Amino acid sequence: MATVSVRAVRKAFGSTEVLHGVDVEVEDGEFVILVGPSGCGKSTLLRMIAGLENVTRGEIAIGGRVVNNVAPKERDIAMVFQNYALYPHMTVHDNMAFSLSLLNAPKEVIAAKVGRAAEILGLQPYLQRYPRQLSGGQRQRVAMGRAIVRDPQVFLFDEPLSNLDAKLRVAMRAEIKDLHQRLGTTTIYVTHDQIEAMTMADKIVVMNGGNVEQMGGPLDLYDRPDNLFVAGFIGSPAMNFLKGEIRGGAFHTGDVALPLPLQVPSGAQDGRRVIYGIRPEHLLLDAAGVAATVHVTEPTGSETQVIMNLGTTQVVGAFRERITQKPGQSLHIAPDPALVHLFDEKTGTRLS
Amino acid sequence: MTDAKPISPAEADQRVDAEVSGGVTEGEGPQLLSWDSRARRIVTVYIPLVIFLIVLLFPFYWMAVTTFKPDNELLDYKNHNPFWISSPTLDNIKKLLFDTDYGHWLVTTMFVAIGSTFLSILASVLAAYAIQRLRFRGSDYVGLAIYAAYLVPPSILFIPLAQVVFQMGLFDTPFALILTYPTFLVPFCTWLLIGYFKSIPYELEECALIDGASRLQILRRITLPLAVPGLISAGIFAFTLSWNEFIYALAFISSTENKTVPVAILTELVSGDVYHWGALMAGALLGSLPVAVFYMFFVEYYVSSLTGAVKE
Ligand SMILES: Nc1ncnc2c1ncn2[C@@H]1O[C@H](COP(=O)(O)OP(=O)(O)O)[C@@H](O)[C@H]1O
Ligand SMILES: [Mg+2]
Predict the structure, then answer these.
(1) Which chain B residue's Cα is nearest to A87?
(2) What are phi and psi of A287, to 5 degrees?
(3) Phi/psi of residue B54, each to 5°?
(4) Assuming Cys at both sites, which of A225, A311, B77, B147 could form a disulfide with A231, CB separation 3.0 to 4.6 Å?
């Protein structure tokens, strides 16, 4: 186990820079998830940590040792690729034993380690099969088994669940998390799926366009997003944003007035143009609230999502209560003032 | 059965059987349709195929027929059917095997073909892997240069190569051929293998790199096992070309016992303007057998490995 430090790392392919100075600190034993829309440079960063791409500028250290010029095999890491990269001509057993056999490990050691990994992952019945004879979830497990067998300092995962169907993805999510809790190995995991990030991570690094937007615990990001990007990216359905200005101790958009946060941020003087953010689940039914026109209702059973027009803006609300209003009718709602966010209109950063 | 008359279950079964086995029975719509499609298949598939086969196989047939014909039938088409043998004989084969060095030629040809194939594949694997995977500076140009070398015709190249062969003291030895055949084998095999390596997911190699394999270990344990179909097609190509090669073999070998089959049967079995057609054809027939066997054995392997494990 080890810490991983990424310091001011830049990466350019030819003349195009795709990472513009990234800093990430991963504690020993931590489960860190790099999340962001596709093309933002997550895989590139992970591959640099693995040693598959060289570092254009900056420094990467694993366990305190700078590894910029260290070959992948000397870094003591294991990586699980998006489409598993299982060796098609080797059995499950040989796939898992490959790295050990390269080290000329004694037969008993290989048997013991492969056996243990197979046991952890429930792969014993499949050891003599070839990858093409396995289902997607089993292949995924073999890929993880190959990583476990090496007993590395750091696990790296690049979108390992994106080729699985939705149900299996949920099951494997829990399995990977459980595995991390049992082995306690430092893990860096890449995904574009914020739900995966929220459910699995100790710490989330939100990336966008080659920059880190925010880093922190899942609930920190949910409760106190630093900027509009993080606010919109984390949480599902996504946060509602309303454009307007502060006047007389309230937020005004069109002819709708909404309450300011309980703790009014210092920069929220009268006349300031801001973006008002409220999550769908933080909109409450309130007879004394503002009237919104119902557009579409989507009951899921446990809650009902309502798409409605508030003034000129379309917002989404998620309510525990059953909604009886039909499209076109009005619904009185009020934001929970404890859970309102304000962002600067120009820079998109949080007012605090 | 043209009238709408009730059909007994047994009859119905029969009809199904007939349709399933593609049998043609006269009568109604569906059968007409299948007859129609059958006719179409004959016109579009079987007839062209048969014509193709006749054109392709006729030389072999002629070769075989000539091999077993006695001389009087061979030279007199007026009284004998040229396409058939009335009294087959093994004289020509006997003459070939016992009056010439044929066995020796076969062994030499085999040695040269295997040697040059092995050398070429070895060089091509290393070249193709380096060009496709190591992507060193200028690898594209190296690839192009290798291809350009392929475009120089052997009929021009044999002159400078003769100089080299002489100076290395290899003239009239099998090594003259083993070392010169790769000049045309390596470029083609390299290009074929570059294409093949490209089809193997690079992630597999990255994964092996992290697993702790060196480049050579990756080549030996990951890339080559997955490239077996490509290696086999390159091997078939190289073997066949070396087996049949004529110009270099004619230019670089002078003594009778060192000749390869294609050159030997033409130079040793034609005395002046007398063609020993029977023995000549016997030599050609026996000479093409190893290649045919080689194909038969590997083509099956080739097809099965193509449809097998490579993807995923
Ligand atoms: N080998 C490469 N050469 C050039 N550009 C690349 C290469 N690999 C990735 N990129 C670019 O870098 C950016 C980030 O890619 P990537 O890290 O794969 O994104 P993601 O966050 O989806 O994993 C993309 O714009 C991609 O086009
Ligand atoms: Mg990616």
Answers:
(1) B204
(2) -60, -25
(3) -60, -50
(4) A225
Query: Could you tell which of A13, A46, A159 is best to mutate to test the pocket of ligand 1, judged by most ligand atoms within 8 Å of the CB?
Result: A13
In sequence order, which residues have a C-beta less than 8 Å from that of residue B25 and are 6 or more positions away?
B15, B18, B31
List alpha helices for chain A, DSSP H. 42-50, 92-102, 107-121, 136-149, 166-183, 194-200, 218-223, 228-233
Which CATH number among 3.40.1130.10, 3.20.20.140, 1.10.10.10, 1.10.3720.10 corresponds to the domain B100-310? Answer: 1.10.3720.10
Q: Which residue has the higher pLDDT, A264 or A46?
A: A46
Q: Report the alpha-carbon distance of residue A164 to residue B291 in Å, rounded.
A: 48
> A33: part of which helix (H) or strand (E)?
strand A31-35
Whether the pLDDT of residue B15 is over 50: the answer is no
Residue A284 has pLDDT above 50, yes or no: yes
Helix/strand/coil for B264: helix
- The CATH 1.10.3720.10 domain(s) of chain B lie at 100-310
ipTM: 0.85
For the CA of A210, the closest atom of ligand 1 is 14
Distances, alpha carbon A281 to alpha carbons A286, A295, A319, in Å: 14, 17, 7
Q: Which residues of B touch A (CB under 8 A)?
A: 201, 203-204, 206-213, 217, 221-222, 225-226, 309-312
